[in-house]
Amino acid sequence: xxxxxxxxxxxxVFGIVLTKSEAVSWYRIYEMFQFQSFHxxxxxxxxxxxxxxxxQIMKRNNIKDIKGESIEIPDKEKGSARYWIGGLxxxxxxxxxxxxxxxxxxxxxxxxxxxxxxxxxxxxxxYLYGLLKNKLPH
Length: 138
Known about the structure:
Keywords: Membrane, Transmembrane, Transmembrane helix. This protein is mainly α. It has helices at residues 2-20, 26-33, 39-60, 81-97, 104-109, 115-132.
């Protein structure tokens, strides 16, 4: 129970940071896809750098996961077509919806009920991937 509260707290803080930085703003996302503002690119760059630093800290200090097991991050497999195709689908969905899947629950919590359609689409896409994953090139 203690861990659940810890993760919920991190989720709330993450939601507040995304909201205050305007990363959940449709207008900011629109600006990004129109190359009119650096705002979202700056946020994404900070997220990438934070991830790089975090992974290096985990690797160098042999940090364990919640079960006490070593965290191992395997190298990516060779080939780029699936990354381009996946990125294209992800980017198109992001551009059409005006939101990354990350803040779906943040937007719901802020009272944007139309995001329920986005949540349904995300769940449907995940379900369809589960059905088709064995037939897709991995």
